[in-house]
Structure formats: structure tokens, C-alpha cells
Design brief:
five-stranded parallel beta sheet, Helicase, Ruva Protein, domain 3, 7 strands, single chain
Amino acid sequence: MTRDTLLGLLAALRATPDNAPLRALALDQCLAAGDAQSLLAAIDACGPSLLTDEAVDENTRTRAIKLLADAGQHEAVRMLAPDSPEAAMANARQWLEQGRRAEAMEAYRAAIAANPALEDPAFAALLSGKVVSFADARNRAQPSIANDDTAAYDAVRYIEASTTRITFADVGGLDEVKREIRRRIVTPFLKPSLFQRFKRQSGGGILMYGPPGCGKTLLARATAGECGAKFYNVSITDVLDMYIGESERKLHEIFEQARRTAPAVIFFDEIEAIGGKRQHSREATSAKVVSQFLTELDGFAQNNHQVLVLGATNVPWAVDPAFRRPGRFDRVLFVPPPDAAARQVILDLLFDGRPLAGGIDTREIVKRTSGFSGADLRNLVDTAADEAIEESIASGQEHAIGMPQLQRALQQIKPTTLEWLTSARNHARYANQGGQYDDVLKFLDTHR
């Protein structure tokens, strides 16, 4: 519809404001044109009942309020929908202009709590004082970065990274692995007197291996949470150093710190980087780091009572076999991709706290995600959430995650464990000395 035709329609509406079909047509065309001024003219002709009438559906009313809000017609928004999130946002903008910053912040938070699609980072920066505005000679607003641009949440993040305590309840599936960790690690930490009675020291080590994204790191964090122990997450850069002897010294200091603060859990992710097979090492310094690691685990002068060492790797065949000796890594545990029951639990945990639409068939999702790791499932749910967020931004109101979004996500996300399982099959069949990869063979036979 052309601009002239729309103006003619508004003229006819002013002549017959009670004509219901004409009112509906005028409202529809104003929204289709995205013309806030024409919409205001229609409201002026018919009164607020143009939007508040029972014949107007909620979606149409929401689109009209959003059009007026985007055009800066705050008074009209407050008059037509005083209790709406858009009205709260209009209040926030007006109060900020009046210098009532605290009230503006409260109204803004209420608005985005009711409708997250209204979130406006630029406006939030103005509210927090990170960006201030002033007018130039032509009375145009000019942005300026404030001197102090650190908000309260920034200060917390700079001081110390936030960590949330998790337990085995936050880890979906892997019941057998959790049972073994609880028996070998958690119980000795929680009941030291009983273990002393049987002359059994708490401590030792467990090496976890399996495809990437299946929960090895999450299990380590949950183990520390179950024990209530000090947790040291050691990365490669914490150990390796370009200067001769420094890597060994750093590794020794990490263990010494854990012994001083026992009970403690030391977690080495990608352990093959500092514990690889010495016969494959081209540099003598790498072999010395492995030897130092072995010495720290059970050396003559070491006392690792109540110090637990957890290791995780995706390539157990690259780890030096000396680590498998009892007293070092007493148990080597296979962390497999989650089965159907575990995927159901993981999906329930991932859906928890997110806006969900009715009719989600998790059984269908579980059936279609065979071979998915826990990380793959998180990626699936996050992709569906991205779809819902995009729809929320486009429509101006929150859209929950439903089966349509999950169906589209399933078409995009593929399992990442298949390549690892192919490599593991070759090692399990042709390099399985001592039955160290029997768990892998059992898993492959069960999930052909």
C-alpha cells in the first residue's frame, strides 16, 4: 500500500472511527508499513480502544507497542500499555533524561526481566555511567567514554574468576566411573579413620581417557566438589618452561603446594603433553619432565597422603606406561560417550533453567543423538537456544526453545566422537597388551 493510499485510509477512519473492519485494516496497514506516525494518527482518530479492543490479538498489540517504542513515542506506550515491559523501558529512558539514574536502572532491569528481547547494551552503558552524553553546539548527543568504566561485576571478575562448586549430581551418566572414583577417592577423603584402621592411605591417582567432550574434566571438578578438597587445575603452561630445569622445578612446586594444603586434588588435563612416552621424545628435557613427574607421584621421599592426582587424556596410547604402575595411577578408567539413559539425564540438566516451550520430545532427541558426547549435546541445546534468541530479537518478544528449534539444530550438529572411536578400535585390537583397552573393546562390541 502506497503512502497516499494509507493517508486516504486514515482520512476514512477519522470519518467513521467506529467502523470495525476499517479499524482492523488501518491497524494492519500501519504495522505492515512500519509507520509509527500513521499508527499514532489512527490511535488519535479511534482512541486507545484501537489497540485495547478485545478483537485485537496479543501479537498485533505487541507489534504495535514495539513500533511506537522503537520510534521513541514513550508517552503513547505508557498510555496504551502501562504495565508492559515496553512501558517500563520508556520510563527508564525518560527518568535517565531527568537525571533519576537509580529509578531508571530499576525500571530497565524490570523491563528486560519481563522481556529479555528489549535488552539494550548501549542504554545499559549509559545507565551504569560507562558512557556519558553531552550536547555540542548543534544540540546533538555526543558519546564519551567515562574515566571509570569498571562496573561492579567487572571488579569481581578481575579480582578472582568465579567458580561454582559442582558434584556428581551435575554429571549426567557415567555411573560406573563415578562409583569407582567415589570408592577410590571420595570415601578415603571423607572417612580417613576407617582407612587408617585398615592401614590404607588416602591418595593415589586415577587416569581417565576417552573421546573429547565426554566429561573427563567435569568429573575432575565434581570429584573435588564431592571431597570438599582444594582443587588445583594444572595446565601445560603451568609446567613447561623454555629454560633447562625450570619445568621440573615448577612441577615439584605444584606437588609441594598440594601437600601443604592437603587434602588436595591435582588435575592434569591433556596429560600426554607432560607425561608422554620417553622413547618417543626427541629432547632429553622432555624425558626429564616425565621422570620428575613419576618421582613426585611415588618417590622415596614423597608423602602424598591425602593428595589425589587426576589425569585426563584423549590419547592414552601416547602416555608413558610407567604411569600405570600401582601407586601412581592406580586405576585407568574409560570415559565413554553417554548412552541413551545418560543422554536423557544430560539433556534434562542442559534444559534446566532455560525457557522451554511445551511438546519437547526428549525421547526423539535421545534416539537421534547416538554417538553424541556431552559437549555435542550442549552444542545442540545452545544452537537451539541461538535459534530461539534470534526469533525473540526479530519479533520483539521472548520465544522459548521448542521442537522446531531443536529439529533445526539436529540438522546442523554432528557427533564428534566417531573419529576417536575409529582410532581407539585399532589400538584396542592390535596393541592391547595386558588388556588395558578391554573397556574400549567392550563398548565397541555393545554399540556396533
